[in-house]
């Protein structure tokens, strides 16, 4: 299946989906640092810069997207929304880019759309996302999945939405990501959530603070790196979703 990756960041969404057997045919990312990472890791994949200028007729390496994926901006939805003008939800300038995502789904008509955002979207716009998908003929299922559910050493919670053309009845694509479900993701048991939440995200002093009379030995772009890592998704989650989609596609 061909993937159009929106709000791509450093490509963790595509990394997971490609592990599931899919192929990325185009990225769309506005941040210059992230685009440099994408260009290095996917040198033959075109990178568009602004989702607002993306059209359904664009040449995605001569391929039609079967899947559109991406986590649209969360600034007006997240806990930090007060810094960005309050909890304006999907009416905000950043999180309102959901409607550009929605426009491309309506134009391209992919077989699936995989959407990610912070868990607070459940109270600040999920109803509008689901309603807007229904208006263009897409059903959807959703769930809040914390990182430890796939063994990640961080407690971040993210909402994941999988949409597909109405009437196809593909419910259950997210069930394999719940604790206690059988399958390779849970061999050895479910991780202890509290222990994982307390685990340090960085082992050792990888980015030391400069001394009063010393040199700062951190990488020159370490702020960009940390920002990109903070905005990315955990690749194992789109990989698991991708595997469920591929299994459904093969058996349908």
Write a compact overview of the structure shown:
The protein is an alpha/beta fold. It has one domain: Vaccinia Virus protein VP39 (Rossmann fold, 3-Layer(aba) Sandwich).
Walkthrough of the structure:
With 252 residues, this protein is an alpha/beta fold. The protein has a single domain (2-251), classed as 3-Layer(aba) Sandwich (Rossmann fold), CATH 3.40.50. 28% of the residues lie in helices and 17% in strands. The chain is built from 7 helices and 7 strands. It has helices spanning 12-19, 32-41, 98-108, 126-135, 193-198, 222-231, 236-251, and strands spanning 2-6, 23-28, 47-48, 67-71, 112-118, 138-146, 157-165. A 7-stranded mixed sheet has the order 3-2-1-4-5-7-6, sandwiched between helices. α2 links the parallel β2 (23-28) and β3. The longest helix has 16 residues, at 236-251. The protein is globular.
Secondary structure layout:
Layout: E1 2-6, H1 12-19, E2 23-28, H2 32-41, E3 47-48, E4 67-71, H3 98-108, E5 112-118, H4 126-135, E6 138-146, E7 157-165, H5 193-198, H6 222-231, H7 236-251
Parallel strand pairs: 1-2, 1-4, 2-3, 4-5
Antiparallel strand pairs: 5-7, 6-7
Helix pairs in contact: 1-7
């Amino acid at each position: 299946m061909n993937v159009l990756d929106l709000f791509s960041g450093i490509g963790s969404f595509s990394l997971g989906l490609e592990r599931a057997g899919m192929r990325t045919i185009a990225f769309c990312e506005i941040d210059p640092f992230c685009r440099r990472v994408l260009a290095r890791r996917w040198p033959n994949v075109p990178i568009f810069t602004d989702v607002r200028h993306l059209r359904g007729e664009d040449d995605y390496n001569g391929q039609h997207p079967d899947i559109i994926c991406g986590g649209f901006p969360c600034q007006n939805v997240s806990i930090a929304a007060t810094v960005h003008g309050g909890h304006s939800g999907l009416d905000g300038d950043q999180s309102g880019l959901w409607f550009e995502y929605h426009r491309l789904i309506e134009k391209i008509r992919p077989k699936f759309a995989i959407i990610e955002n912070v868990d607070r979207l459940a109270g600040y716009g999920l109803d509008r996302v689901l309603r807007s998908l229904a208006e263009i003929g897409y059903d959807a299922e959703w769930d809040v999945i914390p990182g430890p559910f796939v063994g990640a050493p961080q407690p971040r919670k993210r909402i994941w939405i999988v949409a597909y053309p109405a009437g196809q009845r593909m419910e259950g694509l997210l069930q394999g990501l719940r604790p206690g479900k059988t399958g390779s993701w849970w061999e050895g048991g479910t991780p202890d959530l509290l222990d994982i939440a307390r685990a340090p995200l960085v082992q050792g002093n990888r980015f030391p603070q400069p001394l009063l009379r010393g040199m700062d030995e951190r990488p020159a772009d370490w702020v960009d790196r940390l920002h990109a890592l903070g905005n990315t998704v955990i690749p194992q989650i789109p990989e698991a979703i991708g595997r469920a989609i591929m299994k459904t596609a093969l058996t349908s």
